[in-house]
Amino acid sequence: MDHYTLSGLGPTETIGILPDYYLPPYITLAHMFSAPDHWAVHNRVMKQYVLQYVVNGVADYPIEGNSYTTRRGDLIFHRPNELHSILPHPSEPYVCISIVFHFGHSSFPIHELCEEGEHYLGNFADHPIDRWLSELVAHYRQPGLTHQMRCQSLLIRILSEAAHTGRAGDSTTNASKMPPLMLLTQHLQTNYHREVQLGELAELSGWSKNHLLFLFRQYVGMSPIQYLTWVRINKAKELAIQTNLTVSEIAERVGYSDVHTFGRMFKKKTGLSLSQFCANLIRS
């Protein structure tokens, strides 16, 4: 049956003959959770799909005999009825975003996004997925159809991008370029509290500025300045979770002398103000 014939049918008449279209996901939980001391999950089974994203801290995450040590930015996926545990390390607070969802009675080919037996989707600490997850939680807390639709569209985008990024990353990495790039990203992670000039990075890597920009964008997915901004955002989140510092004090700690500039940057990049980010955090 061609597309023109399908477009002339009523909605219920098309169901069952559109194998490439599926119901939007039903999201039954979306929250950011700060684990209290000694919190853990042992041998749990969920009846729905789960995405678990580490905002802060470290946790061992065994699933069906496979054990993963997850840190900030790691995204874990598991399927209905898979036995799993969540065992935070006591050395630092564990904060995670949990998304629980299903596709109803629709037969959704999730295996095309994540191969059977695969649970670790990658690290997205400096990736838009980090922001989309926070936005999803914020919309889930709001009533109304528009917020529900935003949640569904964000979840689909997260699943699609995680699958694409994970597979693309394996094929594009050039081992000869990685040591200098790792040195540069580490330098930015260490010096996030001050301005870092491009010339400083060029001297550190031994590359020209143009070559550095090209390789950084190619392998990291953003410019060095954009990466520095993401490092500052994630550090600000850590400080908001772990300390009682004011917004002004956090802004200064991450390299911003003007709190208003920091506030605009944080909201532009995350979709939330720092106070909204903290409001989404469930602490018990």
Topology:
Layout: H1 3-7, H2 11-14, E1 26-34, E2 41-44, E3 49-56, E4 59-63, E5 66-70, E6 74-78, E7 84-88, E8 95-102, E9 120-123, H3 128-140, H4 145-172, H5 178-190, H6 198-205, H7 209-220, H8 224-242, H9 247-253, H10 259-270, H11 274-279, E10 281-282
Parallel strand pairs: 1-10
Antiparallel strand pairs: 1-8, 2-7, 3-6, 3-8, 4-5, 4-7, 6-9
Helix pairs in contact: 3-4, 5-8
Give a verbal description of the structure:
With 284 residues, this protein is an alpha+beta fold. It contains eleven helices and ten strands. It has helices spanning 3-7, 11-14, 128-140, 145-172, 178-190, 198-205, 209-220, 224-242, 247-253, 259-270, 274-279; strands spanning 26-34, 41-44, 49-56, 59-63, 66-70, 74-78, 84-88, 95-102, 120-123, 281-282. The strands form two sheets. Strands 9-6-3-8-1-10 form a six-stranded mixed β-sheet. It is globular and about 60 Å long. The termini are far apart. 27% of the residues are buried. The model is unreliable at 167-175 (pLDDT under 50).
